[in-house]
Structures are given as structure tokens and as C-alpha cells.
Amino acid sequence: MASHDVVVVIPARYGSTRFPGKPLADIHGKPMIQHVYERGLEAQASRVVVATDDQRIVDAVKSFGGEVCVTSALHESGTERIAEVIDMLSIADPTIVVNVQGDEPFIPAENIRQVARNLQQRPVVHMSTLATPLTDTADIDNPNAVKVVVNTHGHALYFSRASIPFHRDARAADALADNAKVMRRHIGLYAYRAAYVKTYVNYSRSELEGIESLEQLRALWYGDIVHVDEAHEPPPIGIDSPDDLQRLLAMKSTTS
Fold this sequence. Notes:
By secondary structure, this protein is of the alpha/beta class. 35% of the residues lie in helices and 22% in strands. It has one domain: Spore Coat Polysaccharide Biosynthesis Protein SpsA, Chain A (Alpha-Beta Complex).
């Protein structure tokens, strides 16, 4: 990707019902947010910025020499927080902004490059993201594993925490097998142009977004195109609890 056109912004909240202080959780002697920041640098983005409303995260980012913007505590989504950063830093409209979640310390840098490259190559697409095949059947009914189905052009038809599509005629086991052919696990990474972020945050919050608690549904609600590509290097499932983090650390120690 052309690094001069790509800025990585990492929205990070301290508050989490299941994992308070998650961005500051220690991973091999570094806070989680530092690992995420380093993935942005590894992807060779021209700029990497953490966006947060919490002074503890601000202090942590400054301690390792990272760039941080203090944003409002009233934002309802990471994209809304990123819109404030775009305004604060006067990021030019054509710039590609990659939204990397602050709780993805193991996301491959190639994912960041891939999602930015995909948007660069598709001028009519409003947003690009990634997905990967569902390899664990337990994830099919796991609401923390977001699912996506796409059309023949690779454009998202729908994202859901539920198993989609509904297989009307098949037995349960067959339905799961058939769904796995078309359903993918969504990777919560987005690229969009700065100009589109400004458009997105001026939309009213959609009903679907509220029901599923998935911000990308706002784009689909208003008819915008979300391109979904299969990740070249699938990351592990996200970290929603301290137990998730310990399991991932154990898995990585056995494979290293």
C-alpha cells in the first residue's frame, strides 16, 4: 500500500463489562494497546494514532512514545471516535483511514495492509473489511463471533451475531455444514476514506445497528458498499474476557 495515504487509528476504551481495563492488560511485559500500535507501525502506515477518552490509556501510550488523541466520552462507536480524530488532525478527505480495534494485539500487519489495499483498488467502495472461514463449529452460535454473508461481488449482504442464513429445509447438522460454505467469521477491521467517515457519522443510528450492536450495519442500512475480502493471514478470534486472553497466550506459547 502507499503508506503516505494510509493512517491507522486505534479506538480504545477502558470500560468493558467483561474485561475492564482491557487495553492495558499485560502481554509479555507490554500493555495490549502497545502491541496493537506496533502492528500498525509494522504495516508501514504513515501515521498510527490511538484515540481514547481515558487518561490511563493516554499515559500508557505516551510512555512507549506513541501518538494519542483525547476524544469525547460520548461516542457510541469506534468510527464516531475516529471521526473526531480526523477533525482534530485535519486528515485530508482522500486519506485512507484504517480502524484497528484496540483489543486486537495479535492481528497480523498484513491484515492492515490488505484492507487498505482493497479500498485503494476499489474507488466505488465505501468501506472495506475482512473475513475468514468458520473453522470452529462452536463459533457458529457464538454471539461474540460476528458472521457475514456476501454477494457474488464480495459486497456484504448482512452482518450478524446469529448464524446466517437460516436453512429452512435441512436438518440441524446439514444446516450448519451448508451455512459454513457461505457464512464467514468477520474480522473487525475497517478501512474507509476520511471523507466517508464524515458522511457515516452524519447518518442517524440505524435500527439494525442498535439490535445487533454492530456499527457496520449503519453503512448497509443506508445502502453503502462494504467490500469483504478473505484475510490472507486470519487472526485469532477477538479477546472479550481475561480467559480469552489466557487461552490465546497459551495457544501461542505451544505453537512458537
